[in-house]
Amino acid sequence: MKQQTIYPVETRLGQPAKPARGQRFATEDWARLKPGYRVRVQRANEAVTAGRVDVIAPDAFVFWVWLDGGRGRVALHEDDNVAVWLEEE
């Protein structure tokens, strides 16, 4: 039986610990992402793609995603024209 992860209701800052599925993140909210979260990303002039969060920088200005389909790992920086959503699993 797969163990279910239980998230606390609130963090110290009063924000939900796990964002709602389908929620779009502003760059200032990237700190709420966690390794392993499934996300959809859209970079400027590119199609929406999906993957799994790998690493978030301590300042949360950049994070890395392993893209589905063996398309590699990409870095997403707050200065990039990028949209990020938590994907429904």
Walk me through what this model shows.
Helix content is 0%, strand content 36%. The protein has 89 residues and is mainly beta. It has one domain: SH3 type barrels. Strands 1-6-2-3-4-5 form a 6-stranded antiparallel sheet, with no helix packed on it. It starts with 23 loop residues before the first strand and ends with a strand. Mean pLDDT is 78; it is low at 1-17.
Produce a short descriptive summary.
The protein is mostly beta strands. It has no helices and six strands.
Brief descriptors of the model:
mainly beta, 89 residues, six-stranded antiparallel β-sheet, disordered N terminus, SH3 type barrels, globular, 36% strand, 0% helix
